[in-house]
Amino acid sequence: MNIEVLKSKIHRVKITQAELHYVGSITIDEDLMDAANFIEGEKVQIVNVNNGERLETYVIRGERGSGMVCMNGPAARKVQVGDVVIIISYASMPLEEAKQFQPTIIFPDQDNRLIH
To answer: What pTM does this model have?
Structure first.
């Protein structure tokens, strides 16, 4: 039996842009992606702390060091620039492996930069 568990999380980043007329997805600074163990194209859940919206999309690589977190396409209507969101991905794995698995969780600063 496989179960779905938390794989990675970026806890509380600010939306820096919202681009309605775009194909879709969320663009994330490559530094944040690397630190959170996200890959381009990975399915993620976005939880908006400001308004309670929850949605799923996929990750697009943003400019490294930019602090960019841009919601694209129709999902741009679910956020406002400045909203705080949590970005989550999950993985499916056997139960025994899941019991030992340690997710990657990062806590960027208020400018969407990594805290060292």
So the answer is: 0.96
